[in-house]
Automatic annotation (TrEMBL):
<keyword id="KW-0658">Purine biosynthesis</keyword>
<keyword id="KW-0808">Transferase</keyword>
<dbReference type="GO" id="GO:0004644">
    <property type="term" value="F:phosphoribosylglycinamide formyltransferase activity"/>
</dbReference>
<feature type="domain" description="Formyl transferase N-terminal">
    <location>
        <begin position="1"/>
        <end position="181"/>
    </location>
</feature>
<dbReference type="InterPro" id="IPR002376">
    <property type="entry name" value="Formyl_transf_N"/>
</dbReference>
<keyword id="KW-0175">Coiled coil</keyword>
<comment type="similarity">
    <text>Belongs to the GART family.</text>
</comment>
<feature type="site" description="Raises pKa of active site His">
    <location>
        <position position="144"/>
    </location>
</feature>
<protein>
    <recommendedName>
        <fullName>Phosphoribosylglycinamide formyltransferase</fullName>
        <ecNumber>2.1.2.2</ecNumber>
    </recommendedName>
</protein>
<feature type="active site" description="Proton donor">
    <location>
        <position position="108"/>
    </location>
</feature>
<feature type="binding site">
    <location>
        <begin position="89"/>
        <end position="92"/>
    </location>
    <ligand>
        <name>(6R)-10-formyltetrahydrofolate</name>
    </ligand>
</feature>
<dbReference type="InterPro" id="IPR004607">
    <property type="entry name" value="GART"/>
</dbReference>
<feature type="coiled-coil region">
    <location>
        <begin position="148"/>
        <end position="175"/>
    </location>
</feature>
<dbReference type="Pfam" id="PF00551">
    <property type="entry name" value="Formyl_trans_N"/>
</dbReference>
<dbReference type="InterPro" id="IPR036477">
    <property type="entry name" value="Formyl_transf_N_sf"/>
</dbReference>
<feature type="binding site">
    <location>
        <position position="106"/>
    </location>
    <ligand>
        <name>(6R)-10-formyltetrahydrofolate</name>
    </ligand>
</feature>
<feature type="binding site">
    <location>
        <begin position="11"/>
        <end position="13"/>
    </location>
    <ligand>
        <name>N(1)-(5-phospho-beta-D-ribosyl)glycinamide</name>
    </ligand>
</feature>
Length: 190
């Protein structure tokens, strides 16, 4: 199975997935890392892991439709079977959704349906919940609304800072996401 990872920034989840592929824990190949930011650190990570990487930005296109058409073409060129979003900070448009039905997964740093959107960790922290967590889900046309595949809870200690909570959440992400992807790959390769 051929995976593409889409990421906009740091790429620590991409790194965790790449390591899991390398270790043989995920029976798939990452054939493409795409970033919508030409200076994203995730591009360095792809290079260090010898994974083909491409980047272009929305602002280089006339509109979002043209941007997505270019992305779709890139995915088709690389014969991608499954799209893994890992900190990809854009909404997936109709074209991509139709081309990859139930073949786009995302990770969100909260227990959906609670705290969707851009600031899942901070929103949970500020709401003073005693428990938050991580969700892996399929993408649909809403924001963080698609069918949930897996969740893991993370306790919030009353003493802890936002930074400490972020660290804890990311550690859970780096374990959970590769595990869930391995499972999806296994199921869909049957
Ligand atoms: C993660 O917290 C993920 O849940 C969210 O964006 C963040 C990406 O972090 N969607 P990284 O780029 O993988 O380090």
């Amino acid at each position: 199975m051929r995976l593409a990872v889409l990421a906009s920034g740091n790429g620590s989840n991409f790194e965790a997935i790449a390591q899991a592929v390398k270790a043989g824990d995920i029976s798939a190949e990452i054939v493409l890392l795409f970033s919508d930011h030409r200076d994203a650190y995730v591009l360095e990570r792809a290079k260090n892991n010898n994974i083909p990487a491409e980047a272009f930005e929305l602002k280089e296109f006339e509109n979002k439709k043209a941007y997505e058409a270019a992305l779709l073409e890139l995915l088709a060129e690389h014969q991608v079977d499954l799209i893994v979003l890992a900190g990809y900070m854009r909404i997936i448009g109709e074209g991509l959704l139709e081309a990859y039905p139930n073949r786009i997964v995302n990770i969100h740093p909260a227990l959906l349906p609670n705290f969707p959107g851009l600031h899942g960790i901070k929103d949970a922290f500020e709401a003073k919940v005693t428990e938050t967590g991580v969700t892996v889900h399929y993408i649909d046309s809403g924001v963080d609304t698609g069918p949930i595949i897996a969740q893991e809870a993370v306790a919030v200690d009353s003493e802890e800072t936002l930074e400490q909570l972020e660290e804890k959440i990311h550690q859970v992400e780096h374990q959970l996401y590769p595990r869930v992807i391995a499972e999806i790959v296994k199921e869909t390769s049957k």
